[in-house]
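Trying the structure run again after the queue cleared.
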Amino acid sequence: MRIPVARQGYPFILAGIGLTALFLWLDLPIAWAVSGFLTLFIISFFRDPERSSPPGERTILAPADGKVLLVEEIEESLFSGGPAFKISIFMSVFNCHINRFPLSGRIEKIRYRTGKFFAAHQERASKQNEQNALLLITEKGEAVGLVQIAGLIARRIVCWIRPGDRVQRGERLGLIRFGSRVDLYLPPNSKITVKRGAKVKAGLSQLGEMP
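Done. Tokens:
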């Protein structure tokens, strides 16, 4: 049976369990209570539940759990070189941090870039923070950009996909440790239905429809 926790969380969880056991053995109730609480929090952060995405290959799914910070048209996307819709989703430390693909297609390019660690809800994080950008080409040849962005205390972006991989909407692509953001860039003729402030779940919530 699959354990519903991302393997990247195992070292943190095992360390927490070990520390809690040590404090129990030393009979330090406040210390083991705090350590036990933090261990439970870490388990919650790295949770990786199974999800069944809703049908509809042209339906755009949320790539991350969290709150929609931004829905806007921009004049130029680095992915397409032209106008695009940009949707930004902020993941707090209480959200599930497994990222998923919004659409099916082929991974054309992946570009990792070091950077700063501003709070992920700030717009400057999109341009200046550490990030991992993926270019997905849909079955109809449309360019879709997906950017994993590290936050204030998120210092490790994990990506399980490689250029050339064919992926399915709702499939896991990676995670970001401890609070972060995902920016999604879509063709300008996409029909966007999600609103700013909406709470969404990766691989489940619908953001709109491809043309």
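Residues 60 and 208 are 5 Å apart (CA to CA). Worth checking whether this holds up in the mutant runs.
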